[in-house]
Design a protein that fits this description.
The chain has 590 residues and is mainly β. The protein has 10 helices and 31 strands. The chain has an 18-stranded antiparallel β-sheet that branches.
């Protein structure tokens, strides 16, 4: 909200020092209450050799969220009177409707986070917002055999569905008016869409009971979908199941899919946030960073071409305003092609089983939300600067009063060119029964070969495997011992080591503001363990209790300037940021 001359805070202070009206406070935080209801009704029956099923579902989700806020209009009013040395004299703020109180900015109690009740009521408040999501679905299908071939009957299923989705997110009044000091603002997000679909599937037995082909089945399915906010599309899937003998089986498939933009992605109203220049702007002090080897030649040349001084260090520059909005009118649907082929082996006594599957998934037009740092960095690292499309999504100050910082970044939901992944899934299972109980051990392992990403058609493709957030190997080892109506399960999950050093230098040594520092942009191989037990009582009550993250394993620590983190703790889905915890689940069947 600006700076206050120190003279205005205490008359005996002199000089050009300035102070921001920001002090310690415990007035921060939020809470959420969610009410969810779901109604399902259905009918099923038979018509000769055909079975039919029709169902209706209605769900209603209401989430109320409360936020502790600091009133921006109160802060501005108090600041202006402090600067001018005048009293409020009963003025009322524009949005929060608070009667002004002369805030003693230099009072030690206020600085230590202990304002008077009068000041607290003037500066602080609480607001409520609500998100309502409704969904109605009507679906019906019929299934049966069409006719019989030498290898067996040809099975088929046909159906249709209709679905309506509605969303209405109404933020609190202070957020809607941009009156939450130090926090982002938000507007109402509301919209609806209707989806219709017709689908069918057929299974054709091609060969049965011949040499090297105990059974060969082909499956095919297709679906036509029409979405009111997007349009219509047709998808399909073909599958092969080749049972060579009782022990060996080959499976393969190829399919397409599409996903129309979700309501939130379409209708998200403009939300604002703030980003520090150091985190958003690659031209921040780029001259010295280039000399230290921390800025690429491309960024160096593009920053110079944009007129940014070599010694620009953010002095006198406020935070960048980051705007996120929906893509209604611009977004297209995601489309994808997925292919897989695999081999399955089962031992004759059914004690051992193993499988290996190769997969390749390619997504075109994926819907993604671009953040401020991603947009600005993408512009200045582009060989097409300043004509790269990303460069049109933000503005930079013109250097007035030495302010060369990023002003506004217009981010939000867009269609990116393509993203894909290739890899191999391995699965091994051992199970057996003994006098003292049953034992089952299952290992699931994924080896990612490629994780590719291309922002726009003319952008340089990226390869992420081995980088933080994209481990090459992940796996899950589950061991279960069961006896009568109870069992105990031990689960171990592991994540391969990763690092991001290639983006900075060949080592973890760097120079920052003239000093040699050591940064951490790597994660070690990490293991997590979970222990749980389950028991069934009288065939009605099913009780499960357990401990997740048994050894209280912390997420790897990194340098937050280089990767996504909370503090120094890595913030990626593979790592546990909650620590050791107890869980329980009770189910009653009737």
């Amino acid at each position: 909200v600006g700076y206050i001359p120190v003279q205005a805070l205490a008359g005996n202070w002199e000089g050009n020092a300035y102070a921001m009206p920001v002090h310690l406070t415990d007035h921060y935080g939020s809470d959420v209450t969610v009410d969810y209801s779901r109604f399902v009704a259905g009918l099923e029956g038979s018509l000769g050799f055909w079975d039919w099923d029709i169902s209706y579902q209605n769900s209603y989700n209401s989430g109320e969220y409360g936020n502790k806020v600091i009133f921006r209009d109160s802060m501005l009013m108090a600041q202006n009177h402090a600067i001018s040395g005048t009293t409020c004299d009963g003025e009322v703020t524009e949005f929060s409707g608070k009667t002004c109180v002369d805030v003693p900015w230099g009072d030690p109690q206020l600085m230590y986070g202990n304002p008077s009740d009068e000041v607290r009521n003037f500066l602080f408040g609480y607001e409520m917002g609500e998100t309502i999501y409704k969904q109605q679905t009507l679906e019906g299908y019929i299934t049966g055999d069409l006719f019989t071939l030498p290898a067996g009957p040809v099975g088929a299923a046909f159906g249709a569905s209709y679905q309506r989705d509605e969303i209405d997110d109404q933020p609190g009044a202070q957020s809607a008016n941009g009156n939450s000091w130090g926090l982002s603002s938000a507007s109402r997000t509301a919209g609806s869409q209707n989806s219709r679909a017709v689908f069918g599937e057929v299974r054709v037995p091609v060969i049965a009971d011949v040499a090297f082909a105990q059974r060969v089945d082909l499956t095919g399915s297709a679906r036509w979908t029409d979405v009111s906010t997007y349009g219509s599309d047709t998808t399909f899937k073909l599958g092969l199941n080749w049972e060579i003998n009782d022990d060996w089986r080959v499976r393969a498939s190829r399919g397409t899919s599409f996903r129309s933009p979700a309501l939130f992605e379409l209708y998200l109203a403009g939300q604002t946030g703030f980003g520090g220049q150091m985190a958003v702007d690659p031209c921040y002090n780029y001259g010295a960073e280039y000399d230290a080897g921390n800025v690429s030649e491309q960024v160096y040349q593009n920053c110079q071409a944009d007129g940014v001084p070599l010694d620009y260090d953010g002095s006198g520059t406020s935070s960048a305003t980051l705007i996120t909005s929906g893509g209604a009118g611009n977004l297209e649907a995601e489309t994808s092609v997925a292919e897989s082929v695999g081999l399955v082996w089962t031992s004759p006594e059914n004690t051992f089983a193993a499988s290996i599957d190769y997969y390749d998934v390619d997504i075109s037009g994926q819907i993604a939300s671009l953040g401020g740092s991603q947009i600005v960095n993408g512009c200045y690292t582009s060989e097409n600067f300043p004509d790269d499309p990303l460069c049109d999504l933000f503005t930079r100050n013109d250097g007035t009063n030495g302010d060369w910082g990023i002003d506004v970044v217009n981010g939000g939901y867009v269609n990116i060119a393509s993203q894909g992944t290739r890899g191999v899934d391995l699965n091994f299972t051992y199970q057996d029964e003994f006098e003292f109980g049953r034992l089952r051990v299952n290992l699931e392992h994924t080896n990612q070969i490629e994780q590719r990403y291309q922002l726009f058609a003319d952008s340089e493709p990226s390869q992420w495997i081995g980088e933080i957030g994209y481990p090459k190997h992940v796996g899950l080892l589950t061991t279960t011992f069961a006896r009568d109506d109870w069992n105990v399960t031990w689960t171990m999950r592991y994540v391969d080591k990763t690092n991001d050093y290639e983006y900075y230098s060949d080592t973890n040594e760097s120079t920052y503001r003239g000093e040699d520092i050591t940064f951490v942009a790597e994660t070690p191989t990490t293991f997590y363990h979970t222990l749980s037990g389950n028991m069934t009582f009288a065939d009605a009550f099913d009780v499960t209790v357990g401990v997740a993250n048994v050894f209280d394993k912390e997420p790897p620590l990194v340098s937050p300037s280089y990767v996504r983190s909370v503090g120094n703790a890595t913030l990626y889905s593979q790592y546990d940021n909650l620590g050791r915890r107890v869980f329980a689940n009770i189910t009653y069947n009737f």
